[in-house]
Design a protein that fits this description.
α13 packs antiparallel against α15 and α14 packs across α17. Helix content is 51%, strand content 0%. With 387 residues, it is mostly helical. The chain folds into two domains: 253 residues, no CATH class; 126 residues, no CATH class. The protein has 19 helices and no strands. Bound molecules: heme C (3 copies).
């Protein structure tokens, strides 16, 4: 299978050329405080989240891919092959799939309020998959005198804090059993800033320079999850290719994090247990670290300045370096967008073309041209140096 077909779909569908735009430990349900699930219809009345502007989260959600995540399991060209290879008759009722794609189907009947069941509660990834089961806060959370802190204290999942939010998303978006990937599932790559930006039709964060903050928090959480998973990999026949994909990704994420100031505290080598703890500390700090034009530009220059590490002299033609190139390209794009959105940087089509080209270089993972990739980084550096 070519690299192209296996790239994380989310992160490649937004090339600049097409339009300017903008990952097992599935966690997912946050069954906080013994709350039971009330179902999407309880959120959807017109006076609540099924109303007009500002109250239309349900309508927005229905257009979101999360709402379609159940059906999506059979809608990719590789779906049938994947389930056949794994010996799964139907993904709709198999917990190996539903845990992320339609998590209500994996919970016991007594986790629903009376008269409700998984089918009625809402398919796909629903409101309560992210916000937590709403039984005890459904009524009170609409009261104007209720603060966010009070809602959280009775079981609504706190996601305004970016560390908490990253934890909520990463449960489904980074770690997946290696044998599922080895049999054809698209590998998962967690990148909070891009994911978050795509969901802003439904929520809007306040403040400036959130891009780099989300990017760094997300990368650190991704590394923590990969470290956990690799530290706990048991011999799993048929999974070796999937484990290799995960190791390459771990190498890429730790490499890019080490280029940041916060990442200097990561332990050397591949001690997954130590790295899990260190990346969690980095993620917590990153969720509260403020960014500026200067610090964003400085990081972007540092990342672009890694071009020597991609030269042929370094034998950088392996799938692992293609992974690294891919993650670097995705990171540079987030930083560029932050400089555009928050730093008043004028649109620079040369940078945008070069960023698109970086992604192109990573598409053929068996024949990665590190030298050409490095030259493209140099082009970006020249543009940035112009100021
Ligand atoms: C750890 C969570 C997780 C598990 C377990 C999981 N998936 Fe996925 N799956 C995802 C995510 C996240 C995406 C979206 C990835 C992207 O776009 O980069 C996805 C995408 C897909 C897609 C592509 C959908 C599309 O819109 O193109 C299919 C098909 C799919 N999964 C099927 C399955 C099947 C079948 C299983 C069970 C064998 C399964 N998945 C298990 C998280 C998971
Ligand atoms: C993929 C996870 C996810 C799903 C699914 C989801 N939300 Fe959210 N929602 C969030 C996050 C993250 C925020 C931002 C943090 C916050 O405000 O708590 C948010 C914010 C909100 C807000 C506050 C908006 C604002 O502008 O302050 C409301 C209201 C809301 N969601 C309702 C819903 C409803 C109703 C559904 C189902 C129709 C839903 N959400 C589904 C993750 C999700
Ligand atoms: C219960 C598991 C689960 C959780 C929790 C979850 N997701 Fe997802 N997400 C999925 C699956 C599965 C897909 C793929 C759905 C599909 O292809 O239809 C997906 C798809 C997406 C997409 C692609 C949608 C698009 O329109 O391109 C984005 C972006 C995304 N998720 C962001 C987030 C963010 C941000 C959070 C946390 C606030 C989050 N997700 C939490 C399971 C989850």
């Amino acid at each position: 299978m070519t690299r192209q077909a296996r790239l994380p779909q989310i992160l490649i569908t937004c090339a600049f050329a097409a339009s300017a735009l903008v990952l097992s430990r599935p966690a997912a349900l946050g069954a906080e405080a013994g709350n039971r699930i009330v179902g999407i219809e309880s959120c959807a009345t017109s006076g609540c989240h099924g109303g007009g502007a500002g109250k239309n989260q349900v309508q927005i959600h229905r257009k979101d891919q999360h709402a379609n995540a159940t059906l999506a399991m059979v809608q990719a060209p590789w779906s049938t092959q994947l389930t056949q290879n794994l010996g799964i008759t139907t993904p709709y009722t198999n917990a190996r799939c539903t845990v992320c794609h339609t998590p209500f189907r994996t919970v016991a009947q007594d986790k629903f309020v009376p008269d409700l069941n998984a089918a009625k509660a809402g398919d796909g990834v629903s409101c309560e998959s992210c916000h937590g089961p709403a039984e005890y806060w459904l009524r009170s959370h609409t009261r104007p005198d209720y603060t966010h802190a009070m809602r959280v204290s009775i079981g609504m999942r706190e996601m305004k804090d970016l560390y908490n939010r990253a934890n909520a998303c990463v449960g489904c978006h980074q770690n997946i059993d290696p044998d599922i990937v080895a049999n054809g599932h698209v590998p998962l790559t967690f990148e909070l800033d891009d994911f978050d930006t795509r969901e802003t039709a439904h929520w809007k964060d306040k403040g400036a320079w959130l891009g780099p903050k989300r990017w760094l928090t997300g990368q650190a959480v991704a590394l923590r999850e990969l470290s956990w998973s690799l530290a706990n990999q048991h011999a799993n026949p048929g999974a070796s290719r999937g484990v290799k994909v995960m190791q390459d990704r771990w190498t890429a994420v730790s490499w890019v994090l080490r280029k940041t100031e916060a990442g200097r505290s990561l332990p050397a080598g591949t001690d997954y247990v130590a790295s899990q703890a260190a990346s969690d500390r980095i993620a917590r700090a990153a969720a509260n670290q403020d960014w500026s034009k200067e610090s964003t530009m400085k990081l972007m220059r540092t990342l672009v300045g890694t071009r020597q590490e991609f030269g042929r002299g370094n034998a950088e033609t392996s799938p692992a370096s293609a992974q690294r190139g891919f993650l670097l390209a995705a990171s540079l794009r987030r930083l560029y967008l932050a400089l555009r959105n928050d730093g008043g940087m004028a649109q620079n089509t040369n940078i945008e073309k070069s960023l698109d080209a970086l992604f192109e270089f990573t598409k053929d993972e068996t024949n990665f041209d590190g030298e050409g990739y490095g030259r493209m980084l140099e082009q970006i550096d020249i543009e940035l140096a112009k100021g």
